[in-house]
Amino acid sequence: MSATTENGTSPAAVTSPRLHARWTSLAVLCAGTLMTVLDGNIVTVAMPAIQNDLGFDGPGLAWVVNAYLIAFGGLLLLVGRLGDLVGRKRMFTTGLVVFTVASVLAGVATTQGMLIAARALQGAGGAMASAVVLGMLVALFPEPREQARAIAAFSAVGAAGGALGTFLGGALTQALSWHWIFLINLPIGAVAWAAAVRVLAPERGAGLGRGADFPGAALVTGALMLTVYVIVGADGRPLTGTLLFTALALALFGAFTLRQARADRPLLRLRLLRSRVLTGANAVQMLMIATMYGFQFIGALYLQRVLGYGELATGTAFLPAPIAIGLLMLGLSARTVARYGGYRVLLAGLALIVVGMALLSRAPVHASYAVDVLPALLLLSAGFAAAMPALTGLAMSGAREEDAGLASGLFNTTQVVGGSLGLAVLSTLAASRTGGLLDRGAELIPATAQGYRLAFRVATAIAVAALVLAGAVLRPRSR
What we know:
Helix 2 (19-54) packs parallel to helix 7 (144-175), helix 3 (58-86) packs antiparallel against helix 17 (404-439) and helix 4 (88-107) runs antiparallel to helix 9 (185-199). The protein has helices at residues 11-15, 19-54, 58-86, 88-107, 112-131, 133-140, 144-175, 180-183, 185-199, 214-232, 239-262, 276-305, 311-318, 320-340, 342-360, 369-397, 404-439, 444-473. The two termini are 25 Å apart. It has one domain: Growth Hormone, Chain: A, CATH 1.20.1250.20. Residues 1-17 have low confidence and may be disordered. The longest helix has 36 residues, at 19-54. The protein is globular, with a radius of gyration of 22 Å. The chain has 18 helices and no strands. It is mostly helical. It is found in: Cell membrane. This is MFS transporter. One of its GO terms (cellular component) is plasma membrane. It is a multi-pass membrane protein. It comes from Streptomyces broussonetiae.
């Protein structure tokens, strides 16, 4: 028999937030997440304008993206754990402040160094705001059906925001200037912070003394930052340098693992990694995000460099993706997961991603948007709309309440690493294929199309690997 209070209601009913307050809190979390997701992608279309204005060379320009990714991916695990210790609301609101201030600094940047430093600070703020969101979400919605709906809404914002960033980047750059892709975050960030302070329920963390393993934090943060650095800069670095940095990253990960096995209060409880569902979901996500980043970035380049689209036209061409993702996630994902289970929905979504990438891998030189691009775009959007909420629910179900922030940070970390790895591998393959054909006398546009075609085919193979891995590892065990 469950305990009740004097008025006959259960303690859970008394202490849990009202339904309206919980969904208002979810809206605030989604708003903060949308700002960081948009800024991770909005800069890509504006890169040529930034290059012309500040005089970047090719390798230097890459650091406008790389500085953000390294700080964001390297800090996620650390700030996720710190969120458990100092309070997730405090970590989230602090992250919004850091991100907003960094956005203003990036928007007013007049030198290369100032922009790159501001982008690194943006990455740090984005990590602080993003790492704890899933942990807050599952605490707000403990009931499975409501939790599935909340995860679907959150995933819709994140997924649609990535594609929407491409459109906004082109529109703001063409209508105003590249500075506004960063300055637009000032009013958004201010409103999101004020709403978070007012709406989100206060919470106490476990306290820094309950798990502040600072040596372990230094080891894993260094290892993650070095890993992302190796990935995003591999194509512009000699092979010996890449191998050296890879070996150093592996050594830091090894030292971190030994530290966690022996520490009295480890940063990462190794039992968390023994969860088949959690580790399997993170591995599947890494492969799936590598595929989707390939579609987003290589697809945008294909539209511009092969089909001759401008900045605004490229962003507009991607608009059906966030619309389809938002409608499907909000309208169908939660009910579908509740009815058929996360495992089946995940497999169906991954299968759609495979088919969409296979269609896109044709990449003809004289393509029709309605025939050759849009069907693949819609299939990929539908697949991602089905797979991402299901995968998120599976990953978070493998963590205990006290590890929710850490599990959230881990899930976001594999997302960044998967995206960085997919982008580095696929862009390198495309460039290598195109360069080889040009050396043999091929024309520029057909050779470029061949390079992107190879990248899309490899992305299809990665999606197949994600489907096979999910089928083998995440299958529910019969009771």
